[in-house]
Design a protein that fits this description.
alpha/beta, homotrimer, 364 residues, Udp-n-acetylmuramoylalanyl-d-glutamate--2,6- Diaminopimelate Ligase, Chain: A, domain 1, 15% helix, 11-stranded mixed β-sheet
Chain lengths: 364, 364, 364
């Protein structure tokens, strides 16, 4: 539990075990007041072990209970043994703390709502939010202060638009979508036709479709398509400062980590994972279940299930060994010089001797 | 034509040919309702072929007409043959769809306009926009909701400031400039004088000059200069999440793609193109017509017309071959070991024989 | 002095010398009207020389006085000789121009202030700013238009929140902090538990602590912690478009340049410097006084005082020599082929001769 006030409901370990499933080893009446990391846990906290790197912290943690996987560690406190301890711990967090609660403000008279905008029940539209003409918003949505919802935008139920996020005209946002502060959806694609040295703006007549259950981090930008829509697939999660180019289509359940940039007209299948600062050029296709290591530069199609790294990106194992070798380049060069010198000496030595058939003067 | 409603005016192919020039092969009375890519075109759409990668789509496209270059492909539909098909297609898009239309709202009473601000005719200043003291805005400008125009800023005619964009005090924005949502112009340069381990803020007394016809993408930041102004040259186009350091001067007609970062006091000539995620260190000069490949890191001056890639960036052709070879580093190392082993054996073999003049013991 | 109006107070060189210390060589009554770079200085300006790169400009500068270090250059104008000329010049800038002046607006009736929010004396809360329930703001703070201060946030004295910056609920911001436009503090960490192919959102119950004297550039994002707080240490300065992951702790007096991305649960000691576009993976520790060169990718712990570069990052000197050698990879490969060919010939030559004990057929 961190230093900020996050009121939780007191639970017993038994209640937690019933909620997440798994096998309980230890006193089921142990009181759980909060959840924390091993190193920061206080008495009453439940913690978890997933990353072996932290195993040593079991000796010193003050946690009152632990969620662990099938590989059961030594510990002095009650254990909850589950198949997927990270998922179980996340369920416990939801149980104890819940997701963000949004203040009930109704539709603020200080928001700017177009007369023809349709807003569903139980929506919270904050002060200084703009809901332009032709907008349709479902039930249970929250539009935070200074968010801008452009003309003709459609937003599904239970979607949250955080403060100062901007959705340009005619984009479509699904249900249970979460767009964080200062992000932009539907700004113009980077499309110019250069003619006689002048860059002429190409109208970006496509839009953006953000499907259900997508989350977009802060300060990210999803460009609208030039002709066809840019699409963020169902359940995909984008980090902070991500940019997605015009007409790119990202499949469902992808994880796009912070500062990734994907150029226009690319396609990603489902369940792709792109590490931080990855770049993907335009007009290429990544299959399903593709993983791209942080900072990689992808310039060619990637087949289903492939894991790639490096710039230009190649198979991960190959890249990992190759990039780890770059610091040895000066040594490699020296080795080659040494070999050249040795060979020269040998050649000279051979030349100095009476030969039979070989022609050492060929060797140079 | 995409799934979103973009009403267009019906045209004949003849009208289109008259508008963009070029040679018409096929029925001039063909009706054109919209424009689209080859793969997404519907009956009535005009499409185009520029990238040979898409030639195969000619067989299946449902487009009713095509704009093509001098290298005329086989096709079953009327062709409009032009010098620069991409430019021609962009002109058709403008003809059919036009650029973004801005709602006429006048000067909203819900905007915060300083009494001494001067605003030209036909401007649209939206709710919750701020126009601070001493600001001068030309004719035909649009300032979207929650945009902030700081004290003493000057903005030329027909400039569009999108929602939540921020222009700090005393910056000068030209005519027909387009600044997208959540971008910042004129925030402080990253300037600190470190003294006894403490970083002291250096006042950033320069400003930013954004010349005519510049476009700045979403979530980008142009820092104000420490002493002299940061300049974005006429007609240059910046993508999303770009950052330009204090005092840097970008010449006219440059293309700066998404996530590029240019440090302070750098200069770029005209018609430079920087690919996505490029980094440029401070205090260096890139000439005219310089091209930098995506993700490159430029740490030295670059001469006019040069194309560079890699980090540190070198000549593109050289870089392309070199970086493609990184994955072979483990093989290279193995080859060297093999050579070393073979050489050892040869040296041993030579040593084992009666020698004349050579001294194989030297060879090691 | 730049082209924009920055009114300064006229000073004599004597007054300046008294203010910054140092030794004055030349007429103490020289009038100083402004400050500028060597190349842009006009008569009446004071300038400085730190970077030798600019020494040649001494011949042509129109500056009326110069601040220089102990290595005194030839110059035709009065010199102020100091230990740390860059710091002295920055002091002169503060003396002549001061830091940004903030308009006195009081608490705008057009701001949205929760009834229970506490706001100290001499604060300026602009139009369209939101100060949510439970917020406590110290004395002398400025909250610019459309900034959002979420529920329960605490802000220390003399802190400036620029236009459209967003601080999510329960974050704590110190004194004299400066957060630039369109930046976000406390948005959700990128935390998902993937179960059966679906990414479940993990509540981010930690917060963000931004300590005293921190500056955060424009369009940057600091994520709130999952369990424990994300911390930006006292006096640290972050550039534009920086992102700091959930639970990461940055020590005091660090310099984090533009577009750096640090993943979650990392720790940085004090006085670290990270160059532009650096990436740091999560769960690692950088010691004190660590320097990371631009674009590097740090994937392992870094010891105190180390300077690293490259991706993956290694010791700077080693990296510099190694990366400079990448363009020679094609040559290296050719060298190896040549060696292989030569060796083959030698082996053949040896095989062709009568041998004693060596077995050249082994050599291949």
């Amino acid at each position: 539990m961190d230093s900020m006030d996050n009121s939780t409901q007191k639970r017993t370990l038994r209640e937690i075990a019933e909620h997440v499933g798994g096998q309980l080893c230890g006193d089921p009446d142990t009181t759980i007041l909060g959840a924390s990391t091993l190193s920061e846990a206080r008495e009453g906290d439940i913690s978890f072990l997933v990353n072996r790197k932290y195993t040593r912290q079991l000796e010193t943690t003050r946690a009152s209970a632990l969620i662990v996987g099938r590989e059961i560690p030594e510990a002095r406190v009650p254990l909850l043994v589950v198949e997927d301890p990270y998922f179980a711990f996340s369920q416990v967090l939801v149980l104890l703390y819940g997701q963000r609660k949004h203040q009930v403000v109704g539709i603020s008279p200080r928001a700017a709502i177009a007369p023809d905008a349709q807003i569903g029940e139980d929506c919270q539209i904050h002060d200084f939010a703009t809901v332009a003409s032709g907008v349709r918003i479902g039930r249970g949505c929250v539009v935070y202060p200074c968010a801008y919802i452009g003309e003709g935008v459609e937003i599904g139920d239970d979607t949250i638009i955080h403060a100062n996020a901007v959705v340009y005209e005619r984009c479509r946002i699904g249900r249970r979508v979460l767009i964080h502060a200062n992000s932009t959806v539907g700004s113009d694609g980077f499309g110019f036709a250069t003619h006689n040295g002048v860059h002429h703006k190409i109208p970006q007549i496509g839009g953006v479709i953000v499907e259900d259950d997508v989350e977009i981090g802060a300060c990210s930008s999803i460009e609208r398509g030039t002709l066809s829509d840019t699409v963020i697939g169902q359940g995909s999660k984008l980090g902070d400062l991500v940019t997605i180019g015009h007409g790119t289509r990202i499949g469902p359940h992808c994880l796009i980590v912070a500062q990734v940039g994907i150029a226009g007209s690319a396609t990603l299948g489902h369940h792709c994972t792109l590490g931080g600062q990855v770049g993907v050029v335009g007009h290429i296709a990544l299959g399903d279940h593709v993983t791209v290591a942080a900072q990689a530069g992808v310039i060619n199609n990637v087949a289903d299930g492939q894991i790639v790294a490096g710039a230009p990106a190649v198979d991960m194992n190959r890249a990992r060994r190759a990039y780890a070798m770059i610091p040895y380049l000066p040594q490699i060069r020296q080795d080659i010089r040494d070999l050249q010198n040795q060979l020269e000496k040998i050649a000279a030595a051979l030349e100095a001797r009476p030969t039979d058939s070989a022609e050492p003067q060929d060797v140079e």
